[in-house]
Amino acid sequence: MAAIKILSVDDEAPLELLMKQYFRRKIRNGEYEFYFAHNGLEALAILYQNPDIEIILSDINMPEMDGLTLLAKVNEMRNPALRVIMVSAYGDMKNIRQAMNNGAFDFATKPIDMDDLNVTIEKAIEQIKFVHESQKEHSQLESLKKDLTTARDIQQYILPQVFPPFPEDSDKLDIYATMQAAKDIGGDFYDFFRIDDDHIALVIADVCGKGIPAALFMAVSRTIIRSKGASGVSTAECITSSNRLLAAYSIDGMFLTAFYAIYNTKTGVVTYCNAGHNPPHLLKANGTVEELPMSGNIIIGAFEDLEYKENTLQLEHGDTLVMFTDGVTEAMSPTFEEYGGNRLDNILGQLAAADCQKIIESVKADITTFVEDAEQSDDITMLVLKRK
Fold this sequence. Notes:
Blueprint: E1 4-9, H1 14-22, H2 24-28, E2 32-37, H3 40-49, E3 55-59, H4 67-76, E4 83-89, H5 93-101, E5 106-110, H6 114-158, E6 173-180, E7 188-196, E8 199-207, H7 211-229, H8 235-249, E9 256-264, E10 269-275, E11 281-283, E12 289-291, E13 311-314, E14 320-324, H9 326-329, H10 340-348, H11 356-371, E15 380-387
Parallel strand pairs: 1-2, 1-3, 3-4, 4-5
Antiparallel strand pairs: 6-15, 7-8, 8-9, 9-10, 10-13, 11-12, 11-14, 14-15
């Protein structure tokens, strides 16, 4: 541990000898390192040359620059760890009081009781250590904040951001998606990719939990599902295989819900496997809204030996499939009321002719109005597909 550096400022020469004699053992052991000045001006010069000095023992009455002026100059340095102990005659209590009001840590009176001064210095050292620990924790928090910002940027980068994603099929379909994390980084994700000329895969998922663990599990889950789905297997086989892998390596009971679908761009048929996820809502071209049937499949990552089943859905021209995570329907108002499926259907019913981006923006705006200034409690993710 580095020595505590102490600056003694006093115009009385015998005090320097007294300090060196009394603290000789701690000086010899490298615990204390003393500097000596005879007035405030000398003290400032030493402080500028040795900014790591953390304790100042300063007389109040000195020539050229007194202790109160020195204290004011020290305060301007804004070193939160620096502690100033004022020294003066017992009858000079007015100046001592002023020094304490101006930020001095403590005081000692002349003739100095060295044992009492030793206790005062040790007390100052304890506070200095606390300041250093607080500064260290602050630095760690700032570093973590920077890491979280980087992680958020990476997470957004791995989610598809280019729309329209399949311009060669822009006359057949429209796709749009967003993910709004409740914290710096989230556990929701969406994805879509081409399997072949006539088939496009879409997935939306919600990892249990929030923050860094959920984000890491999200990244692994997305990679596994995309890798398996890109091989062209059925939606049921993709989720069954993905579950087997994720369940085998799941840590601390991590799991996710997911809706994985394959869309036939020629026929409008959607084959899908819903693994415990919110049933998407089907917005018909005439403005009616239907909720897909509840899934008999359970979450992904909890049990290895599960066989998932798939269903099919026919999208007619003008129909829109609205996929979302529970952060949409469970968005909470200031009175703890949930946004709910009925409100979602009401706003969707007004958007039958809108494109996918407009649908998502309208729903999010309606949620924002509903929750007012309530804190976002969950990630809000939406993935919308329209058959043109």
